[in-house]
Amino acid sequence: MRKIFGKLGIGRKNPYRDLENAIGYRFRDRSLLEAALTHRSFRFENREIEVDNQRLEFLGDAVLGMVTGAHLYEQFADKDEGWLTSLRSQVTSGKALAEMAKDIRIGEYIRFGKGEERSGGRRRASNLTDALEAVLGAVYLDGGMKAVEKVFAAVLVPQLHQLEGDVWGDNPKGKLQEYAQRVLKCGPRYHIVNRDGPAHAQTFTVQVTAGEGRVGIGRGRNKHEAECQAAADLLKSLSKSEPTV
């Protein structure tokens, strides 16, 4: 990758030293890190800049899924696929990654265009998440999978241990799906029983069933929200009679 240090005057001094310390990895080719921290808005406003972080974000997302899956597989040998899938989804969710990005103050290093800067882009969760994934992609290109595992251990593993206490977190549909397949030997079935209000502000009522006589009802501003409420309602009912829920 072509060196693009000019804008920040990188030479004798490394402006990314604190960030590298936070992720536990020192880049050999620091132009990769600079690219990972270059938002597309900056590239758009500075035509001499040839790269932004979108391709690295794509690569980092794939790398993150791989290293997270491998870590969970090794660390939780007694857990089934459903449990592992749910925890991986939580660890790699936009919400979790944005919090990790804030912890290492990645927003302070991203190069934005003037418009994105003025509109609060430095604090926008999606920008922080994209930058963190791009940094992981850059780490992979610079040091391979071993380097990614090192960053994963420094940045993501602490977050993982906070999540594993309630693996299903805010995912009642996932929890119900896992329980129904494991215990009831069937999948939950959802269907809309009512829609109220004007087309632009409807309220949905959804019913979920799982096995004989097991019913949950939920209401929400959209189908997904109503299904989540219905799953939570059924789980609450099941927990009163089924200790394994």
CATH class assignment of the largest domain: Mainly Alpha
The CATH topology assignment of the largest domain is Ribonuclease iii, N-terminal Endonuclease Domain, Chain A
Specify the structural class.
Answer: mainly alpha
What is the H/E order?
HHHHHHHHHEEEH
Count structural domains: 2
Biggest sheet features = 3 strands, antiparallel
Keywords, please?
mainly alpha; Double Stranded RNA Binding Domain
What does this structure look like?
With 245 residues, this protein is mostly helical. The protein folds into two domains: 161 residues, Orthogonal Bundle (Ribonuclease iii, N-terminal Endonuclease Domain, Chain A); 70 residues, Double Stranded RNA Binding Domain (2-Layer Sandwich), CATH 3.30.160. It is built from ten helices and three strands; from the N terminus they run αααααααααβββα. It has a three-stranded antiparallel β-sheet. Strand 2 and strand 3 form a beta hairpin. Helix 4 packs antiparallel against helix 5, helix 4 runs parallel beside helix 8 and helix 6 packs across helix 8. The longest helix is centred in the middle third of the chain and has 39 residues.
